[in-house]
Design goal:
Elements lengths: L6 H4 L16 E6 L9 E9 L6 E6 L5 E6 L4 E5 L6 E6 L3 E7 L4 H4 L19 H4 L4 H7 L5 H15 L7 H12 L6 H8 L3 H12 L3 H20 L13 H12 L3 H6 L7
Antiparallel strand pairs: 1-2, 2-7, 3-6, 4-5, 4-7
Helix pairs in contact: 4-5, 9-10
Length: about 280
């Protein structure tokens, strides 16, 4: 695994979930950076803890982010893989349930999953056979250790130790790696035909790479990167206009993507008081 971190790529830390006022006094939601050596492959570790004596069941909206999560249900002592989502989805948070998780960046997905990534797209159910130990058999030891713990600090330490070991021989197809790096570096402002020219590979082969190894078409992947980049720009700037180097040259395309991926207009985003992960 490369020791040097690409600072441009590290800027891709997507927003996964919006603030939900119904959960404000019911859960504690925290995110933690992994060790530096892992930050090109792991976006964050996260925990969701129910406050004591709180009983509820609330849907939390999740945004498409081109990431795959391993989820640990610490009360039910189970773990499953949540595949990449290409649309807004729901995650049910209930009182009396505690979770921990690992969010993997796109570059990690081909090495992480020992299956066709497309089979997991828009799916995350433990009951569909996506138990972590079966989908990611080389992480079985980590899963067993974590599911026997309740101390979050110890869990985070295990995540770092086991993932450093797991990714010690990290490798993916060099052309796919290069394309992923370039897409993130340009915030999704690149066309498929340009990738084809730069990496000397046909557009059909690019499509096969992305669908099998990432779980999504290259066109949709690029749209999500562009949407996420524009979303962060809007929140940081507080201005309702598109940034040309993010690939939106007119507001109609930007509005279309926001409606598609967020079910909200850019203007509605600016009126929201807070987001997680920003």
């Amino acid at each position: 695994m490369e020791k040097k971190l690409n600072k441009k790529i590290l800027k891709y830390r997507p927003i996964q979930t919006l603030k939900n006022d119904l959960l404000k006094d019911r859960i504690i939601h925290q995110e933690f950076f992994p060790r530096k050596e892992l930050r090109e492959l792991v976006a964050c570790y996260w925990v969701i803890k129910s406050r004591e004596g709180s009983f509820f069941s609330i849907n939390q909206k999740l945004l498409p982010d081109n990431c795959v999560d391993i989820v640990f249900d610490l009360k039910k002592r189970s773990s499953y893989v949540a595949g990449l989502w290409d649309k807004t989805s729901d995650f049910v948070i209930s009182g009396g349930r505690d979770f921990a998780g690992i969010r993997f960046l796109p570059k990690a997905i081909p090495f992480l999953l020992k299956t066709n990534a497309l089979e997991l797209t828009n799916r995350c159910s433990l009951y569909n056979g996506f138990e972590t130990a079966s989908v990611c058999p080389n992480l079985k030891t980590m899963v067993e250790k974590v599911l026997n713990l309740n101390n979050y600090q110890t869990i985070l330490e295990i995540f770092n130790d086991e993932l450093l070991r797991f990714f010690s021989d990290f490798t993916i197809h060099p052309k796919l790696s290069g394309m992923l790096d370039l897409i993130l570096k340009r915030y999704g402002n690149i066309r498929i035909e340009k990738l084809s020219d730069l990496f000397f590979v046909s557009e059909k082969q690019i499509s096969r790479y992305f669908k099998h190894d990432i779980g999504i078409s290259p066109k949709k992947f690029i749209r999500i990167v562009r949407f996420q980049s524009q979303l962060k720009f809007l929140l940081a700037s507080g201005k309702n206009f598109q940034k040309p180097d993010l690939g939106y040259y007119d507001q109609s395309h930007m509005i279309k993507d926001f409606q598609s991926f967020l079910n909200q207009s850019p203007l509605a985003v600016l009126k929201m008081s807070d987001f997680y992960n920003t």
